[in-house]
Each structure stands twice: as structure tokens, then as C-alpha cells.
Design a protein that fits this description.
CATH class of the largest domain: Alpha Beta
Distance between the termini: 65 Å
Structural class: alpha/beta
Largest sheet: 8 strands, mixed
Number of strands: 22
CATH architecture of the largest domain: 2-Layer Sandwich
Strand order of the largest sheet: 13-22-21-14-15-20-16-19
Strand content: 15-25%
CATH superfamily of the largest domain: ATPase, nucleotide binding domain
Number of helices: 21
Radius of gyration: 23 Å
Number of domains: 2
CATH topology of the largest domain: Nucleotidyltransferase, domain 5
Shape: globular
Length: 587
């Protein structure tokens, strides 16, 4: 199986593809452009149509990604589409009530051995994938027609879901040699695939059927505790630190385990609604904090063992992670620590929203040409707006108080030192689920109560503290064992660190009850204006660390354009909006 090419994989080309358009038409749809091996534009549909985690065809994202890259449709050498067997929407707004007949049937069959054979073994997965490909043939034709209407006549390649995930992590790591591991609920029949990566080549070494996914158990708990699956798992991660896992850890260990001999997860329970019914009975009367702590602990145990054994078998010392399960920042810290690998890189858009990038990177690197490792050092790959465009938007709001200071960065730092709350909109929008300074709300971190009153202003209910942002120079004094030479994950807020005593004393607002934080560490060469704000704030207060939370209201996507930024600012009642070079206050 290792390295074997499937019918869905692109064949070698005599001329390397210089420009590849990546497309994902599913959960958190989006588009990306790769030029000469590097991501140059990435945008997800939710930011443009304002429908959070939009599922469907990226109608606006495709032309916008081409515009951002400065590429005409006729200049595209290849189009890479994520997925080879189609995707079924697993959860709607009503959670597991939206499963559909096929999944309900499999859920019922999981009360016996049939579902385990159908979805839990390679034979069954192969059969299901074949059936799904037949259905997907119609979807492929429809996609090609949509692309042609945009003037895209290049050859279209369809790339396996988990190969997309792993390509997104490997080809943005900057490493020649590493182990790439993906893990999510389900994609093209699997929940995880592992690739040994070297010299630009990705060789498949392990696949795990989706029936055995640890991600499903996290989904189950999210649903049982009254939250929306595939959207609110982060709340479970936050709640976990408040609970005692021993209260019900045996329940989850009994249902989901790690098989060390075969190097795989094993679902000993049922599936979907059948397993939900079982867990509802077993967990009745147990505090939600304890349930969260138990599912988090079991997830950490099985995933860390899975990854550690894979590293041992392959001899790899670096780890590239992708897939929705690795949006769990606490899990990533545990995996890094227990695996004892040199460093981890978590693709900044680790969920399905990053599939378009992975598809484009995979097709580019398999089209021929020399491989040169390229590290993704920033994610400012979305739309940006000129001062003129911002000024024209402000003109539509004559009641706002607007001024243009000589240095907006120095003014923002001064306002923050006065404990004002500043919404910041500057430069290109971030790619991925995290606001990393350009579409962020900034606030002092000196008062732990900020988590309560600021969340109320933003109409949010969160159990994780806000994340911190600080400079590369200051980071070692706030985060234990922080090493700037091994900081890929810290740049993108994708892993937690244990905090130092200085952090507890000076920035209690960003310290969780387990004494961890999920930082963004800013390098001057990457974002000089944000670095200037932090540096000046540190000069004024003696503590160059701030709260950084996403600039959006609850259940809305992160703001993209100046108009949305102004409307969100007015609705939130924040103190100041730093909109490009302008400072804006409400009348």
C-alpha cells in the first residue's frame, strides 16, 4: 500500500505545475492558491458570506483566492479538489437529529457486529468508498461545470481527504523529513492516516477507519452536554480542566481504546445515536465538568499512544499534525510531551477549512520539479484593504468619531495601558480559525475577571480563558520551556504551554485553572506593527503581554472587511476600533 497511486491521485506531469488552485466544497468550504510551492492566498467561504462554517460550494472564495494571488483563470495550471468519495453532512443545527437514513441504519446496526465490519474494517471501508465514489461521480461533473463557468479549463484532480490534511501540514512545516499524522471524525472513510515524509514524498504507512475515531466520542459529549457538535468542542476542552476525570473515565476507556499491537484505535462501543443513547444512560447524574475531564483524558491517552508508537516505528523525530481533533490545543501539548519528539507543527487551519490548501500543495508537489522545504511563517493570506477603501467605508458612518494619529500603534498601546478595549483591523485577514492580531480584540491581561465581562459584551459563553499574545523576546519569561527555535505551533495559537510564575502574577486573565495558556508569539519580521504595539505596551506597563481574542460576535465568523468590522464594533460596545491607520470611537 505504501506509495501506491490510486485512480484519484494525479499522475506525474512532464512540466511542473506552477500555479494550482485548491478547492474544498464541504464543511468550512474555501479556496487556496499555491504558486511555485508556496501558499499565496487562502480564504474560507464563511468570511465572505458570513455563514459560520459554511457547507457547500465556495462560490465567492474561488474568485477571491485568484484575485488575492493576482492570478487569472487562464494562468491556473491545475485545479485540486479535496475529497475522492464525496462527503455526507454529519451534523446539522439539530445535531444528531440530522443524520439521514443511511447513517441511522448504520447506527442501528452498530448494536450488533455488522456495523463494525462494514465501517470498522478495511474490507468494509473499501466497499463503502466504492459506493460513495459512484455517487460522487455526479458531484465531480457538477464541480467541473462550475469551474468552467469561472473560466478555469485546467485539469481537475481529486485528492483523498486525509492526504489533503497531511499535505497541508508537511508542505508548510519547512522540514524535509517528518511524520505527518491526521486525525478527525471522518473523511473518505477514514479518521486518520499517517505518512512518512521525506524529500518531498509522502508514503502512506497507516490508515484507521472512521468507525474507530476518538473524534466521535468528543462529538458525543459535546452533544450530550447541550452544545453543537463540530462547532463547540472547544467548550469541552475548557470545561475539562474544572472536572475530575476519575468520576467516569472507566466509561470512556471501556468504549474506546488503543490497540498497541496493531497501532490503531478500537471502538468497542456503538456508533452515532446508538452510542449516544448508551452514554446518556451511563453518564446520567455526573457533572458536565467531570464528563468533559474524562473524555479529554481518554482522548489524550489513546492519541498520544498512537502517535508515540508511530514515531517509534518510523524513527521520525519531527511531527506534523492536521485534522479537526488536533484543534484541541491541550491534546497537542500532551502529544508533544509524551512523544518526546523534537518539535510539532500543527497546520494553522487544521480542520476541514484547510483541505483546499492541502489539495493544492499535494497536486503541486506531485506534478514534478525539485522539492525545496518551505515553512509557512505567517497566515496573513486573506483580503486586505487600502487606506482609501477604509476611509470610504467610514464615510458611510458620519456619527463615528474618527481620527488619524501619527502612529496608530503607539496610540493603541497607550489606550491598552489605560485599560481600554481595542478592536484591531489591520493588513491581510488571517487564514484559519484563530485571530492572530490583524482581526483581533486586544485587552490588558492583568485582571482575571475580564473573561466574564468581555465575553458578556461579545455575547459569548466560554470556559477557556482568553489567549495571550506576546513577543518572541518576552515569551520565555511567560511560558515554561518555550524555545524560539521550536516555536512553530506557538506562532499560530495551536498548542498550550505551562505558564511561569511571572505569567500568573502579571497576566491572570490568560491563565487557565490548570495553569496553561495557548499563546500567539509574535516575531517582528512576521508582523512588525503588532510587535510594535506589544513592545510599546511593555514599555508603558512593564509587561508585554495582552489578551487576544477573535474580532467577532458570538456564532459569527471573524470579521473580514471594514464594514463588517464597524458594525461588529458598534454592536459589541467596545471602547476603540483601530481600523487601519484610523482610530474610531462611537458617539
Amino acid at each position: 500500500m505504501i506509495g501506491r497511486r490510486t485512480a484519484a491521485e494525479p499522475q506525474e506531469r512532464s512540466r511542473p505545475a506552477r500555479v494550482v488552485l485548491g478547492v474544498h466544497a464541504g464543511h468550512d468550504a474555501g479556496a487556496a492558491v499555491v504558486r511555485d510551492g508556496r501558499l499565496v492566498a487562502c480564504v474560507n467561504e464563511e468570511r465572505l458570506n458570513r455563514k459560520k462554517l459554511f457547507w457547500g460550494w465556495p462560490q465567492r472564495s474561488v474568485p477571491e483566492a485568484l484575485r488575492l494571488a493576482g492570478v487569472a483563470p487562464g494562468d491556473v495550471d491545475a485545479v485540486a479538489v479535496a475529497g475522492t468519495s464525496g462527503s455526507m453532512k454529519e451534523f446539522g443545527e439539530r445535531g444528531y437529529k440530522d443524520l439521514g437514513l443511511a447513517r441511522e441504519v448504520v447506527s442501528f446496526l452498530s448494536k450488533g457486529p455488522v456495523a463494525g465490519v462494514l465501517l470498522g474494517e478495511e474490507r468494509g471501508v473499501a466497499l463503502v468508498r466504492s459506493l460513495m465514489r459512484m455517487r460522487h461521480a455526479l458531484t465531480k461533473r457538477a464541480m467541473r461545470r462550475r469551474l468552467r463557468t469561472l473560466g478555469l479549463e485546467a485539469q481537475v484532480h481529486f485528492v483523498d481527504h486525509h492526504r489533503c490534511h497531511n499535505a497541508s501540514a508537511y508542505y508548510t512545516s519547512g522540514w524535509d523529513d517528518c511524520l505527518a499524522v491526521s486525525l478527525d471524525g471522518s473523511g473518505d472513510g477514514y479518521c486518520s492516516r499517517i505518512y512518512a515524509c521525506r524529500s518531498g514524498r509522502m508514503d502512506l504507512v497507516k490508515s484507521v477507519p472512521s468507525y474507530h475515531s476518538p473524534g466521535y466520542y468528543y462529538n458525543y459529549v459535546t452533544h450530550l452536554l447541550g452544545f453543537i457538535p463540530v462547532r463547540h468542542e472547544g467548550k469541552i476542552t475548557g470545561l475539562a480542566a474544572y472536572g475530575d476525570p476519575k468520576r467516569c473515565l472507566d466509561v470512556f476507556r471501556e468504549r474506546l481504546a488503543y490497540d498497541k499491537e496493531n497501532g490503531t484505535f478500537v471502538n468497542r462501543g456503538r456508533w452515532m445515536t446508538a452510542e449516544l443513547e448508551h452514554l446518556a444512560g451511563r453518564l446520567e447524574g455526573i457533572r458536565r465538568e467531570d464528563v468533559s475531564a474524562a473524555v479529554q483524558r481518554n482522548t489524550e491517552d489513546v492519541v498520544a499512544a498512537y502517535v508515540r508508537d508511530a514515531l517509534d516505528r518510523t524513527g521520525s523525530r519531527r511531527l506534523a499534525l492536521s485534522g479537526g481533533v488536533f484543534s484541541n490545543v491541550r491534546l497537542n501539548q500532551v502529544v508533544w510531551g509524551r512523544s518526546e519528539c523534537e518539535e510539532i507543527h500543527v497546520h494553522p487551519h487544521m480542520g476541514d477549512g484547510g483541505l483546499a490548501s492541502g489539495a493544492a500543495l499535494d497536486v503541486y508537489h506531485r506534478s514534478g520539479g525539485a522539492y525545496e522545504p518551505a515553512e509557512l511563517d505567517h497566515v496573513y493570506l486573506g483580503p486586505s484593504y487600502t487606506d482609501y477603501e477604509i476611509e470610504r467605508t467610514l464615510a458611510r458612518y458620519p456619527d463615528l468619531c474618527v481620527r488619524r494619529p501619527r502612529s496608530v500603534e503607539i496610540e493603541v498601546a497607550r489606550l491598552l495601558a489605560e485599560r481600554r478595549i481595542v478592536a484591531r483591523f489591520d493588513g491581510a485577514m488571517e487564514y484559519g480559525p484563530r485571530s492572530l492580531g490583524n482581526r483581533s480584540i486586544l485587552c490588558h491581561a492583568r485582571d482575571a475577571s475580564v473573561n466574564d465581562w468581555l465575553n458578556k459584551r461579545l455575547e459569548r459563553s466560554e470556559f477557556m480563558p482568553f489567549a495571550p499574545v506576546t513577543t518572541e523576546e518576552a515569551a520565555p519569561s511567560f511560558f515554561a520551556r518555550f524555545d524560539p527555535a521550536r516555536s512553530r505551533a506557538a506562532r499560530f495559537m495551536t498548542v498550550t504551554y505551562d505558564v511561569t510564575e511571572r505569567c500568573v502574577a502579571e497576566a491572570p486573565a490568560i491563565v487557565h485553572v490548570d495553569r496553561t495558556a495557548r499563546p500567539q508569539v509574535v516575531f517582528r519580521a512576521v508582523n512588525p506593527r503588532l510587535h510594535d504595539i506589544l513592545e510599546e505596551y511593555g514599555r508603558l506597563t512593564g509587561s508585554p503581554i495582552l489578551v487576544n481574542t477573535s474580532f467577532n460576535m458570538h456564532e459569527e465568523p471573524i470579521v473580514c472587511d471594514p464594514d463588517t468590522a464597524i458594525r461588529s464594533f458598534l454592536r459589541s460596545g467596545l471602547d476603540v476600533l483601530a481600523l487601519g491607520p484610523f482610530l474610531v470611537t462611537a458617539p
